[in-house]
Inverse folding.
């Protein structure tokens, strides 16, 4: 009797294991939450210091293209204008996405609709390979092949937005392609059958039904690709030219938010304005990545409602 | 109007999925302005046979079809046959309602747009006409821009039928069109089929004996890939010649 009571009143081994597992995962989650919050807090504190401690105006930061945080300008204000970097970042991102999207859709259609067996066999490994190549290799190829090619065609140094976009195009192509493939595969087969049974050709079925039904997924894929392009630093830094100048053409040397960060971060001292200014660039990157994430959520939601 | 003219003639139809022979030589004819019901136990080859008539079996890998299929005197498997135009002429309604995830209007307009019709007036007119013919107009007329998937299964199926009627096929194949629907929706579809049958040649696969007896003029009973019996629906139901047919109708198997 006593033994029985004891057994019932004490937690069993399974319960203890259960609790133990729960505790461990809670600790891990807590740790990651703290980490995330502190990264955001850290970036925000340093990034905002430019505005609150060094009294640079936000307007100037966004719309001025004088980037020389170490020196005072003619008006006695520090020169912290990130316009050039913001423009260049958006330019390479958009251009890379515009270049990559048609290719990604074409490859994805080939692999899902036109030649699923052969296409998947040949192209799947290629896509996986492209994902696995480190960005420094892409940058290196860009530097050795693309920059000289642009130089000989368009003149100038060859460094600039065009070179950056081309390198990013190759880098985000697999991302957009594989996500587009996923969304095409999710289009139920009965849409295809319904369309063909109504006397539509294969192409009509593809562009009037399949692409339309998969559109939210494809848009999500593009935004994912853009997020990747916007955040890529190393490869871009190697081909963009790294001059904090507003780009005057696609082939003039400039700098993106990320390339400016990677190329300058070793040269500044923590707590000084030049260092704070770099943190402000990082803050812009963080905000943009939040916006990309929201965009993906919104587009994805719209897709769900349609199904 | 000439009724009872034979529109479809099929002779010695054999179909192989790989090595497996699923149809063992079927001879069947279908007449204009009549509804023919295909009945038989599950797996006997009704859907398989039906898909031969609009060449949807072409989409399935490793299918071999022999025999002769003539629609309006033309062999639909002749090399120069354009499958796309065949499917405009021979439409199909599937077991599961399968509207596109677009508006009701875009669904019904789809077949017209695919044919290159751009005139908005003509399209609107045909959309309305087809939805009325499919007996679903009153239920969707205020929501033509709403996603077709937001309607009930029965409404979706009638939208699919409207989508098909809009392209004015000569032949309508229906593969268990009401098996996923409630009795009221089914009754609406049956009534609608009786309404429109004069202008079409209709073939319907069904597992419901009541449905077959209510709406069809002719009935074909299939078993294990063979055609067992074919004739006037009344005759088949009241006085079948084959023992297998009467056993099936009496629910002894199936
Ligand atoms: N795509 C396919 N590949 C291989 N075999 C198939 C395929 N489709 C059908 N079969 C086979 O062909 C035979 C006939 O199938 P079918 O679908 O035509 O029967 P059915 O009479 O329509 O049955 P149900 O009433 O269940 O719909 C079955 O033995 C089935 O397993
Ligand atoms: Mg079937």
């Amino acid at each position: 009797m006593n033994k029985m009571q004891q057994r019932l009143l004490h937690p069993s081994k399974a319960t203890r294991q259960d609790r133990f597992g729960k505790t461990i995962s809670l600790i891990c989650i807590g740790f990651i939450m703290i980490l995330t919050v502190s990264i955001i807090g850290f970036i925000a504190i340093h990034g905002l210091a430019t505005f609150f401690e060094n009294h640079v105006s936000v307007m100037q930061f966004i719309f001025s293209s004088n980037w020389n945080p170490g020196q005072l300008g003619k008006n006695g204000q520090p020169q912290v204008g990130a316009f050039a970097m913001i423009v260049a970042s958006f330019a390479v991102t958009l251009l890379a996405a515009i270049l990559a999207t048609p290719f990604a859709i074409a490859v994805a259609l080939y692999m899902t609709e036109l030649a699923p067996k052969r296409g998947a066999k040949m192209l799947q490994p290629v896509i996986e390979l492209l994902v696995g190549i480190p960005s420094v290799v892409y940058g290196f190829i860009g530097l050795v092949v693309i920059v000289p090619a642009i130089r000989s065609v368009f003149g100038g140094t060859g460094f600039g937005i065009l070179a950056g976009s081309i390198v990013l195009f190759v880098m985000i192509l697999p991302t957009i392609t594989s996500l587009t493939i996923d969304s095409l595969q999710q289009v139920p087969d009965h849409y295809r059958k319904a369309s063909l049974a109504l006397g539509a050709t294969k192409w009509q079925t593809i562009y009037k039904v399949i692409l339309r039904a998969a559109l939210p997924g494809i848009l999500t894929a593009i935004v994912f690709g853009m997020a990747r392009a916007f955040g890529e630093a190393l490869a871009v830094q190697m081909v963009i030219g790294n001059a904090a100048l507003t780009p005057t053409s696609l082939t003039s040397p400039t700098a993106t938010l990320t390339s400016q960060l990677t190329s300058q971060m070793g040269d500044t001292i923590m707590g000084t304005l030049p260092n704070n200014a770099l943190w402000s660039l990082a803050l812009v990157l963080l905000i943009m990545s939040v916006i990309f994430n929201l965009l993906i959520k919104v587009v994805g939601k719209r897709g769900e409602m349609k199904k | 109007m000439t009724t009872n003219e034979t529109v479809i003639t099929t002779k010695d139809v054999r179909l192989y999925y790989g090595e497996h022979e699923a149809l063992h030589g079927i001879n069947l004819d279908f007449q204009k302005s009549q509804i023919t019901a295909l009945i038989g136990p599950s797996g006997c080859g009704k859907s398989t046979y039906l898909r031969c008539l609009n060449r949807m079996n072409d989409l399935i890998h490793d299918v071999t079809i022999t025999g002769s299929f003539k629609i309006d005197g033309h062999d639909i498997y002749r090399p120069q046959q354009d499958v796309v135009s065949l499917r405009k002429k021979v439409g199909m309604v599937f077991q599961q309602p399968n509207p596109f995830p677009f508006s009701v209007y875009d669904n019904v307009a789809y077949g017209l747009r695919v044919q290159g019709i751009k005139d908005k007036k003509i399209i609107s007119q045909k959309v309305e006409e087809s939805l009325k013919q499919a007996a679903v107009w009153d239920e969707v007329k205020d929501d033509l821009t709403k996603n077709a998937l937001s309607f009930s299964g029965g409404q979706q199926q009638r939208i699919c039928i409207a989508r098909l009627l809009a392209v004015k096929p000569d032949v309508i194949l229906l593969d268990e069109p009401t098996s996923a629907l409630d009795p009221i929706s089914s009754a609406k579809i049956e009534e609608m089929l009786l309404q429109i049958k004069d202008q079409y040649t209709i073939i319907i696969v069904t597992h419901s004996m009541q449905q077959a007896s209510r709406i069809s003029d002719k009935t074909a009973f299939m078993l294990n890939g063979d055609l067992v019996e074919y004739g006037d629906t009344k005759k088949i139901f009241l006085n079948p010649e084959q023992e297998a047919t009467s056993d099936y109708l009496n629910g002894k198997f199936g």
